[in-house]
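dumping this here before i forget
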Amino acid sequence: MPDIVIRGGTVIDGTGQPQRTADIAIDGDRITAVGDNVSRGHREINAAGALVMPGWVDIHTHYDGQVTWDPYLTPSSWHGVTTAVFGNCGVGFAPVNKGSEDYLINLMEGVEDIPGSVLAEGMDFSWQTFPEYLARIDASPKVMDVAAQVPHGPLRFYVMGERGADHSIMPSNDEMQTMGQIVEEALTVGAVGFSTSRTVKHRTADGRPTPSLSATEPELATIAQAMRRANAGVIECNSDMGPGEMNILINAARLSGRPLSVLLLQINAEPDLWRETLSHIANANAAGLQITGQVGCRPIGILMGLASSVNPFSSHPAWQQISQLSLAEQALNLRTNQALRKQLGEQPFDDSHSRWIENAFDRTYELSEVPDYEPMPDTSIRARAASMGISPWLLALDLLSIADGENFLLHTFENYADGNFDVLHEMLTSKHTICGLGDAGAHVATICDAGYPTFMLQHWGRDRVRGPKLDLEFLVAKQTSKTAQTFGLLDRGVLAPGYRADINIVDPTAIRVKKPRLLHDLPANGKRLIQYAEGYLHTFVGGIETLTNGAHTGELPGRLVRGAQSLPIA
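structure:
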């Protein structure tokens, strides 16, 4: 008898093939049968009316630190993620020399908006080399499988010391060779890739550019050649994609003989630049390389709230009158203190922060109890305020002071220049893209996009009204087999005999993301935005149930995935 049989569900197997009604048998951590004549199991799960799909494989997270203190890796585990890859964007915590931990914390705090106090208290830094870091992760209990990449920033700082963050100094040939050797060793013991950042947006908490920003072609070439020697790993990059940038990255991919995956998104200042990048990707793939663009399925949204990192009023001197009050008391004052309302609602303080907020109102929307991530432009804060004949500042104040001040405004920072999802539809449907902009574990009090796999099913597969929906089979494949294959994790992402029993059973009528909330549940009482999901009936990781009706079971079957995994034999 199989250990578990999932009986009578609508199976969407992750390959893109049409959905069908079938039973699934699980023995140990593997699927052993999918079909109509599956024998009775020790445990039977009635999945009639439910969707049965592979667990989500999220290849762009930043759980580098959180994995050492949080076995449940929330919020991703609430959203059916069963494999998470971190070490993205050239930041992480290994390798590290003793005494330089503070720099890596400063780097992560600046680039990924994770408070330094949280990281300093949460991590023990019981490692120095990358193999030692992998061993530390391996020993930590986990609710899901995880995999790690070697980040360029820590690598540079480890080899070059303070010089590695000085962009007027290039590494010597010996230092470049040492970097290559470290990457080769890391790939040999289980790293799944090498990541780098080449964007001016990435800075340390004290304002310095990320170490890898100015890395030259010889440095990238040396690391690429090390990857070729190891015959392992993916190159991952976050770049501004300026002139010639894709050529540099494509040359590194060609030298390495390894896949390249780059972030692909629409920026407001150059709304069509992403098409140029996608064209480079398509041409390189036609020439025999393996390159993907990592895309999102909704706007990258900055959440503005009274207690989030971006508060519209926080730089105004009048805000200091209530800044130390509780959230509920702040909201009450904003509703009832007429002098304060006049100062904040009609006379915004003239500084860079207030000017940025003023300009942001065109693309900022109220995030209602049922979050709308594809809002109409005429519902923006500026448009609504104009129709009401009031200042957008006053409207923002009124919306943020509702109830106990737990409301949010969503500023569509990227991927929403045209006020609709047409560009996202074009990105998602390209054969050269995969899903990968959730940034789970990062931007903890600014952005909350870790729930995007759930949103993708809900919005693109069921609820969208402002444009075409996408087939569930396509969407599931995009977030399971496609992401898994990009990183060589060929043993997962498909429901077929021999594959890992990483499975989500979902109520198709109930699946949705809930309104984000701000919690103080990080180390050092750090705050973070979280988003719960509804509709997950069961989640299995390696054949063990980790989530039942949205609640953790307490089981922690996750493991460190060391390197590429072979295609299973049924």
